[in-house]
Amino acid sequence: LEVLHRAGISTTATVGDSDLEVINRIFNTLVSLDRKIQEDNYSAFLYLDERGKPIDFFPYKPLHLPVDKLISVPNLITAIESTLQHLNEESSLQRKADRLKKVLKEAKKKALKKRSKQEVEFSNAEDANTYQLYGELITVHLGEITRGQTELLASNYYDPEGGSVLIPLDPALSPVENSQFYYKKYNKAKKGLDKIQRQLNITEIELDYLASLENSLQEPYSFEDLMEIEEEMQETGLLKMKSKSKPRSRPLPVSKPSVFRAGDGWEILVGRNNKQNDQLTMKIASPGDLWLHTQKIPGSHVIIRSQGKTVTKDILLEAANLAVYFSKAQGSSKVPVDYTEKRHVRKPSGSRPGFVLYDHFQTLIIDPDAEILEKFGLR
User: Fold this and answer.
1) Are residues 327 and 370 part of one domain?
2) Same domain, residue pair 54 and 112
3) At which of 239, 269, 293 does a domain end?
4) What residues make up the domain containing 277?
5) Strand, helix or coil at 133?
6) How far apart are the first and last CA of the chain?
7) In this predicted structure, what is the pLDDT of residue 5?
8) 235 and 264, same domain (yes or no)
9) H or E stretch at 363
10) Are 356 and 300 within one domain?
11) Which residues of 35-58 are buried (b: 16+ CB within 10 A; e: fewer)?
12) Contacts of 187 (CB under 8 A, 6+ apart)
């Protein structure tokens, strides 16, 4: 690409487009570039990614790459070492992220299977209402039943159309005993229904929590981010601690949330994982700061530092766009984002990392704004 750029030849040119003049231009450019490299004593440049990390190196200053993504280094050895070190770190980072994602995938699969089973049990337990109806109708029609009767056709007074219900009876039981039989079945099924409903609620909370961890593992993430997520997964029992590793005497210090500078000196803070979210909302934010989060969608906690001032609509929209970007709704449209003062956000005792309750909120519907995201260096 560099040779074509210096020779003034389009990168889309094909062999069919080539002629002797083009070939000569390429050859002369190669000779000129080689001479320049030697004259400059192999001056070295690093090409940086959006995070300022080296992803390539050159023994000359490449002209086909953005100038703001290039930095000069003392020599080629330094350039090679810096690039390889970063690429090795990236590879290690990716392996760790893949391992955590695999554990989450298995945990989610298990939780979904459990929910499916509970939903079937809940559906079966809903027979409680039928048993209650049978017991009530038998009681109403006691005078019409005799021992030895196997069924009762009774008017269903709950049916607005006045329909009838055919109720199976135990011929060995008296009318009152048949009624008591169905009431007992009702009470047993009702208790089961309540129990299964509680279990379903717990499973839904577990799935929401797993989704929040999945959101934390969306790129980009740093080594510190992954270490915090790994530690959290160990603390919550999702990940077993390696047998050879000694337990930490104290938890890792929580890394700082991302800081975005908006217009007129406004500061917007974004938590990148559950531990950062807890730290940001419950310890860093002031009561009068504005707190944002995608509605019923796993995502980052976002804080606008109000410093006693009224947050403008433009700043609110910028923060809401960040809330959508750092959530599972990234790339979606018409995303609801709730916002309220931090004083209205609370964390229940014993709740999972990142989980909070809030009230006194308002809601914005956000279509992600590319200009706002680009302003913050996001795409």
Assistant:
1) yes
2) no
3) 239
4) 258-375
5) helix
6) 25
7) 65
8) no
9) strand 362-366
10) yes
11) eeeeeeeebbbbbbeeeeebebbb
12) none
| 234 and 107 within one domain | yes
How would DSSP label each residue in 261-274?
E-GGG-EEEE--SH
From 212, 239, 266, give the residue that closes a domain. 239
CA 58 to chain centre: 38
**Model confidence pLDDT, tens digit, residues 56-91:** 878 877 777 788 888 888 888 888 888 788 777 777
User: For the chain, how many structural domains are there in total?
Assistant: 3
Backbone angles phi, psi at 164, to 5 degrees: -110, 160
Q: Does a structural domain hold residue 247? A: no
The pairing of strands 70-73 and 44-48 is antiparallel
Q: Tell which phi-psi region holds residue 20, choosing left (phi > 0), alpha (psi between -120 and 50) or beta.
A: alpha
Q: In angstroms, what CA-CA distances link 73 with 79, 80, 90, 183?
A: 6, 10, 21, 84
Angle between helices 223-235 and 175-216 (to 10 degrees): 160
Smallest CA-to-CA distance from 325 within 254, 264, 257, 270 is with 270
Residue 60 has phi, psi (to 5 degrees) of -160, 170
119 found inside a domain: yes
Query: How confident is the model over 162-192, as pLDDT tens digits?
Result: 889 999 999 999 999 999 999 999 988 888 8
| Helix or strand (DSSP H, E) at 44 | strand 44-48
Residue 25 placed within a domain: yes
Lookup: tokens for 336: 């609801």
Q: Give 15's pLDDT tier (boundaries 50, 70, 90).
A: low
Whether 160 maps to a domain, the answer reads: yes
- Alpha helix segments (H runs only) across the chain: 2-7, 20-39, 76-125, 128-140, 175-216, 223-235, 274-279, 313-325, 370-375
Opening angle at CA 327, ends 323 and 332, nearest 5 = 90
Element (H, E) at 71: strand 70-73
Question: Cα 379 from chain centroid?
Answer: 17
Give the DSSP H or E segment for 152: strand 151-155
Range in 49-58, 90-99, 213-222, 227-236 the model is least confident about = 49-58
Residue 261 contacts residue 315 (beta carbons within 8 Å):
no
CA distance 356 to 374: 30
The residues with which 164 forms a beta bridge, in sequence order, are 155
* Cα–Cα distance for residue pair 85/54, rounded to 1 Å: 9
* Integer Cα distance of 358 and 342 in angstroms: 9
